[in-house]
């Protein structure tokens, strides 16, 4: 049996050689070997999984380019004059051709289970096109392998994005109807519930894009897509929010387990040390020199509720509350997302106190989500083998809650089953678990620049940011809500510092950081982090907002936002090859 698998895999690789849009379709003698058996269909369909996020640049880095994260340097997306038709990328179609070739041939197969595998293929085609539409807007819809003589397709114009998204919806519905596997204990295979969960994500994006991008004139169709989110979320069964033995570990352990928790995880990428398949999560979050050194901003941390369900920003002194005090009695997800007072790491099995390390963080809100507690070898090498969650039930609940809020049909019962359930898992108590909010939080209104004023929707948006931080969804949220200015205008601020000097950040009696100006001082703690907050400005500098006191402010360099960046430019080389594509607005 093993030898047969190797032979089929060899034939499969011959059939799915990468190509550009204008290459000949592959047609080999291996066609019958692949499409004449369920084993062949399965092996071929496995090649589509490459479309899913990879392990090294996985979902945990996606939010580095967002309003919630302070990071080193400025991404090309926000740098002045860095993004252009000459530097743009992503106009690649080889994955689509591979999928279409499979669908065409599988439709002619006599294998009884063929529709299951066609369903998997159409699911991946939906993901492929969703990525292309969110990146470029209008794109050519191609649902067949094309011949090199088909000049009308090869050199034709783009199709309307809204038509393409209707096709995406059709593909998802076909997948949901025909994929035979409902759930997968390993959380690594495409199932009906995976397709349903992705449909809630994709339909939510499309609904809010149509509502808030008023220049497109599609607001009247938004509610249909919001209702698709609700209906599809209701069809997902067999999942629940993960609960650990200790309530303050339920959230964190989802992201540091080697085998996904199947109670909440719908789809994940499993890594394997024995196969040398790793990620660089620890290295990217903890190394002082590698990667973006992402840290949460204080403006975002302010949105975490108190444990009694009240807003932290209701405290009139919240702006000047020092770190040790501000993190007390807060939503338990905060201590499971960043280093707080009782956080420990281990070295050779021995617990080691680990306060925020200003040699590794810009703001003091240093992430631990996705990071192993063990110090070695994970910090200094790309050696993480914890599973990478791509889709989980918590997101489905949030997608449904947002759609209900937008439709104006949220009930106390729905609230308790979505937002209330997420907050209860986070240790929050009080009426916020069961009662619809009736007053909009002024802090959130201000943060989102008056874009949202409905109390229910604002609380859903609060919950979405807190629950899904570092899961790569925030940039698309800002784009679909048409609030891209937050990419560049959000302040990269950190903890409040009452004045220059030493500070104990975890109340263990040992000083952890020394803020100073001018000559570097001395400290009794040899491991202390010295932070120069001199008033000299410039990219990469840390300062205090009031000079010798105030919030830590990090300056990564100038960030620029222009509305044309809601869509990437068509790459120059592809436009030269096919002028009929036309360029996106503002990039001409």
Topology (SSEs and partners):
Layout: H1 2-15, H2 31-35, H3 38-46, E1 69-70, H4 94-107, H5 114-136, H6 151-154, H7 161-178, H8 192-212, H9 222-235, E2 265-269, H10 281-286, E3 295-296, H11 298-301, H12 323-326, H13 332-335, E4 344-347, E5 350-353, E6 388-392, H14 393-407, H15 412-417, H16 419-425, H17 442-447, H18 455-468, H19 474-480, H20 486-489, E7 493-497, E8 501-503, E9 513-516, E10 529-532, E11 541-544, E12 550-555, H21 572-577
Parallel strand pairs: 9-10
Antiparallel strand pairs: 1-3, 2-6, 4-5, 7-12, 8-9, 11-12
Helix pairs in contact: 1-3, 3-5, 4-5, 5-7, 7-8, 8-9, 8-14, 8-19, 9-14, 14-18
Signal peptide: 1-21
Domain RagB/SusD: 294-587
Keywords: Cell outer membrane, Membrane, Signal
Structure summarized in a few sentences:
It is built from 21 helices and twelve strands. The strands form five sheets. Strands 7-12-11 form a three-stranded antiparallel beta sheet, with no helix packed on it. Strands 8-9-10 form a three-stranded mixed beta sheet, with no helix packed on it. It has a two-stranded antiparallel sheet with strand order 1-3. By secondary structure, it is mainly alpha-helical.
């Amino acid at each position: 049996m093993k030898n047969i698998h190797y032979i089929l895999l060899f034939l499969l690789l011959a059939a799915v050689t990468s190509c550009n849009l204008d290459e000949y379709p592959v047609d080999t003698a291996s066609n019958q070997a692949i499409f004449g058996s369920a084993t062949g269909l399965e092996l071929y369909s496995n090649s589509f999984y490459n479309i899913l996020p990879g392990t090294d640049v996985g979902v945990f880095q996606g939010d580095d380019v967002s309003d919630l994260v302070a990071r080193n340097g400025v991404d090309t997306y926000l740098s002045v004059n860095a993004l252009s038709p000459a530097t743009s990328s992503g106009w690649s179609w080889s994955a689509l051709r591979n999928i279409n070739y499979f669908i065409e041939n599988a439709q002619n197969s006599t294998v009884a289970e063929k529709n299951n595998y066609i369903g998997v293929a159409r699911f991946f085609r939906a993901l492929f096109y969703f990525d292309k539409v969110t990146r470029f807007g209008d794109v050519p819809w191609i649902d067949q392998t094309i011949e090199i003589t088909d000049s009308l397709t090869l050199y034709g114009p783009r199709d309307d994005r809204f038509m393409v998204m209707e096709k995406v919806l059709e593909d998802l519905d076909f997948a949901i109807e025909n994929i035979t596997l409902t759930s997968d204990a390993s959380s690594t295979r495409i199932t009906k519930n995976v397709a349903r969960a992705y449909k809630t994500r994709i339909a939510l994006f499309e609904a809010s894009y149509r509502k808030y991008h008023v220049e497109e004139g599609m607001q009247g169709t938004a509610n249909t897509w919001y209702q698709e989110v609700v209906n599809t979320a209701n069809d997902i069964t067999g999942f629940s929010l993960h609960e650990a033995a200790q309530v303050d570990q339920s959230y964190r352990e989802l992201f540091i387990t080697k085998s996904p928790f199947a109670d909440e995880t719908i789809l994940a990428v499993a890594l394997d040390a024995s196969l040398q398949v790793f990620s660089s999560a620890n290295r990217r979050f903890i190394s002082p020199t590698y990667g973006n050194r992402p840290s949460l901003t204080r403006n975002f941390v302010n949105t975490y509720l108190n444990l009694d369900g009240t807003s932290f920003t209701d405290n009139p002194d919240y702006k000047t509350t020092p770190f040790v005090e501000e993190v007390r009695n807060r939503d338990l997800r905060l201590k499971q997302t960043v280093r707080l007072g009782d956080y420990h790491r281990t070295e050779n099995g021995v617990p080691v106190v680990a306060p925020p390390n200003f040699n590794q963080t810009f703001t003091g809100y240093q992430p631990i989500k996705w990071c192993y507690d063990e110090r070695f070898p994970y910090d200094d090498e790309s050696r993480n083998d914890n599973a990478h969650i791509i889709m989980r039930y918590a997101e489905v609940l949030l997608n449904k809650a947002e759609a209900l809020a937008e439709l104006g049909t949220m009930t106390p019962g729905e609230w308790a089953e979505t937002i209330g359930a997420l907050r209860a898992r986070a240790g929050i108590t009080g009426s916020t678990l069961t009662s619809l909010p009736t007053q909009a939080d002024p802090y959130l209104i201000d943060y989102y620049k008056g874009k949202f004023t409905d109390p229910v929707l604002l609380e859903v948006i609060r919950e979405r940011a807190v629950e899904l931080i570092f899961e790569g969804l925030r940039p698309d949220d800002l784009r679909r809500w048409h609030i891209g200015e937050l990419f560049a205008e959000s302040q990269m601020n950190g903890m409040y510092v009452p004045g220059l000097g030493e500070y104990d950040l975890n109340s263990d009696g040992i000083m952890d950081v020394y803020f100073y100006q001018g000559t570097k001082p001395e400290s009794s703690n040899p491991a202390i982090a010295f932070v120069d907050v001199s008033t000299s400005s410039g990219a990469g500098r840390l300062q205090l907002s009031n000079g010798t006191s105030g919030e830590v402010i990090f300056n990564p360099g100038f960030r620029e936002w222009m509305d044309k960046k809601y869509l990437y430019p068509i790459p120059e080389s592809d436009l030269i090859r096919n002028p009929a594509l036309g360029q996106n607005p503002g990039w001409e």
